[in-house]
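4.2 Preliminary Data

To establish feasibility before requesting continued support, the project team ran the inverse folding procedure on a target of 394 residues. The structure was first converted into the token representation described in Section 3, and no sequence information of any kind was made available to the design step. The complete token record follows.
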């Protein structure tokens, strides 16, 4: 049984007033100094405090009464116990589009430098490693909470190359696909970086605008087509200034990583689930994409994700088999012949019927409609049957 999570002081006060105790809950990232008298007397049972600010006296009292306390960790440019996903205003705080180098002053850049300075993915510092793992677990918790606001079949991801220029045909097609799917009530995901990933979020951002808005945005972005261009991020902020998100803007989620921190995350995503661990990030992204995976042209990273997704479908680890649609038949059958290989691998499996290829947004959308995700029994180990068989053998 999972514990209830409390991330807000008013919710905590209401919870205590209602039940006159704390039972089976996690209290996360709160400043509890204003509630010390209340918490000194309240009954508690099976309670965890994650990174909450409190006095030494209250800490000792709670521990004596059986609480588990994860202390605050100092000297970090990130909060290991954050309760929410990142927003663009938080990660890009301090960025001035007129002076692109100010990106180095942002929270995103500060965390990336910290990651580099502390050994990257193989940090030798145990406390640093623990802090990063705690952060990523907190991000996953917030990500699933947001994703589960919609049924699983409404979650769709687009994969593709990070180096795809903003001026390319595929960039526009991806944005068009994402725009239509967002309008249809889908929650769009991507790896949260540049190229095909950014196009996903541009389409979602403009889903509540008329169709001309996309052409206007592409005109602005064409001035800096590659993420290596000096004004790449500045151009994105110019689009946001022309088409500011408002009450009718629909959500989309980017899932980038500081493992590829030289690529700034897309500023078009309404929510950003940024990880330290690239492996956790990729597996989670594919697990979320129950409603479908759209594979745009890409290289090693994209191809790796195709087969990670295939393994999930093959072994039914999510309890679903999900459609996979390749965008650009020429690319995926001749230049990078992944599509025929996947069809061959999956021909005797149920998910084989959910693998397709398309060249236009209309074909992609038709395929997803005609080949919806299917609920299946996951391949879990049956402990009861195993024990029964062993007893029979003896």
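Position-by-position output of the design step:
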């Amino acid at each position: 049984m999972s514990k209830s999570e409390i991330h807000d002081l008013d919710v905590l006060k209401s919870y205590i007033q209602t039940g006159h105790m704390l039972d089976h809950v996690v209290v996360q990232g709160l400043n509890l100094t204003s509630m010390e008298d209340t918490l000194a007397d309240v009954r508690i049972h099976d309670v965890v405090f994650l990174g909450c600010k409190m006095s030494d006296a209250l800490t000792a009292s709670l521990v004596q009464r059986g609480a588990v306390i994860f202390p605050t960790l100092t000297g970090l440019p990130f909060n290991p116990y954050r309760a929410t996903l990142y927003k663009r205003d938080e990660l890009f705080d301090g960025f001035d589009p007129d002076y692109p180098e100010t990106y180095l002053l942002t929270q995103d850049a500060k965390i990336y430098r910290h990651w580099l300075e502390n050994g990257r993915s193989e940090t030798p510092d145990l406390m640093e490693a623990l802090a990063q793992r705690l952060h990523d677990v907190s991000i996953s918790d917030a990500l699933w909470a947001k994703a589960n606001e919609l049924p699983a079949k409404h979650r769709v991801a687009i994969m593709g190359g990070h180096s795809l220029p903003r001026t390319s045909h595929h960039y526009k097609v991806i944005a068009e696909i994402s725009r239509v799917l967002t309008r249809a009530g889908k929650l769009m995901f991507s790896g949260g970086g540049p190229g095909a990933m950014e196009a996903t979020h541009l389409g979602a951002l403009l889903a509540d605008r008329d169709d001309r808005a996309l052409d206007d945005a592409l005109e602005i972005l064409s001035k800096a087509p590659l993420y290596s261009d000096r004004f790449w991020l500045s151009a994105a902020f110019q689009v946001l200034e022309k088409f500011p998100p408002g009450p009718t803007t629909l959500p989309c989620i980017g899932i980038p990583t500081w493992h590829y921190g030289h690529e700034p995350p897309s500023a078009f995503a309404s929510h950003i689930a940024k990880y330290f661990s690239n492996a956790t990030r990729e597996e989670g992204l594919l697990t979320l994409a129950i409603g479908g995976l759209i594979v745009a042209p890409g290289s090693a990273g994209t191809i790796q994700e195709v087969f990670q997704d295939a393994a999930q479908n093959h072994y039914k680890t999510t309890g679903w088999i999900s459609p996979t649609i390749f965008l650009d038949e020429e690319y995926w059958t001749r230049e990078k012949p992944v599509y025929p290989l996947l069809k061959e691998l999956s021909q005797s499996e149920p998910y084989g019927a959910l693998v397709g290829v398309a060249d236009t947004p209309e074909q992609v959308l038709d395929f997803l409609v005609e080949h919806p995700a299917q609920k299946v029994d996951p391949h879990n180990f049956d402990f009861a049957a195993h024990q029964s068989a062993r007893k029979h053998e003896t």
